[in-house]
Amino acid sequence: xSLADLKYLADVKYLPETPAHDPEIEAINDEAFxxxxxxxxxxxxxxxGPHERALSFVAVDGAIVVASVRMTRIAxxxxxxxxxxxxxxxxxxxxxxxxxxxxxxxxxxxxxAGAPAVMLVGDEPYYGPLGFRRLPRGQISMPRPxxxxxxxAHEIVPGAVARLAGEVCHADQARxxxxxxxxA
Length: 184
Ligand SMILES: CC(C)(COP(=O)(O)OP(=O)(O)OC[C@H]1O[C@@H](n2cnc3c(N)ncnc32)[C@H](O)[C@@H]1OP(=O)(O)O)[C@@H](O)C(=O)NCCC(=O)NCCS
Prior knowledge:
The protein has 184 residues and is an alpha+beta fold. It contains seven helices and ten strands. It has helices spanning 3-11, 22-33, 41-46, 98-112, 124-127, 160-163, 171-183, and strands at 12-16, 57-61, 64-76, 79-89, 117-121, 133-134, 140-141, 151-155, 166-167, 169-170.
């Protein structure tokens, strides 16, 4: 890491996300994932309800958002978890440890908030050292096709990952479905 990199890092601060960050986060995700992101399985789940703002974080350099991680409550069978993502870092700030730090902050916040587990769709070589493991093949499915090797989970409460089963949906959808079933 160069001296210039160290200066960058000294200036970067990590903050809980607020609505004021939305336009910059959108621009970072657009640059990182492109318009094709809207057809991804994880986006389909995220589009079904709000993300958990209190557990989502930005990295800022002065007043500028340089990276973001979001968390969304999900359900899969009897299991409940947070889904981490998108995680994206502005190109000029990549490889400085900002992505790793955002994941660590999000996991710590999730544990403090009592979340049982965190899952995501992502690269095991990146997320493995951050505490994520591959889910057993076939244990959960997504509403659109994904490479099963990219379904990863981080367990907070023992047994919570094993409880995730079947198709993953936004937690609000599961709540509404349970409410309708209870009324029938
Ligand atoms: C992936 C991403 C979030 C990483 O953030 P970052 O702040 O640049 O990464 P960090 O500084 O925390 O970590 C850098 C290390 O991760 C590695 N890395 C980055 N992306 C990786 C990937 N997809 N798979 C495996 N390793 C990866 C780098 O090679 C580097 O390795 P090194 O420490 O051995 O040199 C960032 O590159 C990004 O925004 N990418 C585009 C969007 C994206 O792919 N998001 C993740 C969705 S799964």
